[in-house]
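hey so u asked for the seq, here:
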Amino acid sequence: MRVITWNVNGVRAREREVLELVQKHKPDVLCMQEIKSSPEQLPPGLGGLIGLPELTSFWHGKGGYSGVSVHLRKASFAEPVKFSHPSFDHETRVVEASCGAMSFVSMYLPNGGKDFAAKMDFLRALAPWAKAQRERPTIVCGDMNVARTEMDVHISERNARTIGQRPDERELFERFFAEGFVDVGRKLAPDDDALFTWWPYWANARKKNVGWRLDYVSATEALAAKACRAEVLRDFGASDHAPVIVDFE
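ran it, structure tokens below
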């Protein structure tokens, strides 16, 4: 099973790239964040993505808002898919696709730059939700806007007073993992201090790999044990985030 997560930073601007990603890498599950579009605003090509016969899709967004989506390949999942979002999702930031015993979640955690209190409220709600969620095999994909540790930020970018690296954010984020979720990317690359998924647009940061790891694929423990490969597509697309691929046996 192949899972891909990508913060597209405006799906209408990434129409060609999204279709290329799907066609080239053939995910069984695709999760996108910051789509910044309602379903009615999607261009024809992405409207086609909704209607591709091999995909079941759900777009959870409004124009001007962050928005998330989740897409499942029908041939990989025999049972019907149900879509929902948790009660703490007030701004189209979370969508869950439930299929049989499994769940796939696309999530965009607020970055906190404009409303840090809202980010902290979201983080506080995350652990109780994870505690209830761990009763079923679940994969959570998305831009979490928190770098877990110092290793997840390039040495030149480290600053404990910067939002996304603050100790109070990290403490709350760790509660999510303490409730039974495994950070699959770090599990497969425990010593990689250059494993970044986001880069500033300036100073050639992406080419130099001066970035942060903000995009995660996390899974309940039994599923995480089946993860066999992870890759960051650093050279793909024009978003400031790269797609992250994880393969499960």
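The mean pLDDT is 93. The chain has one domain: 2-248.
lmk if thats what u needed
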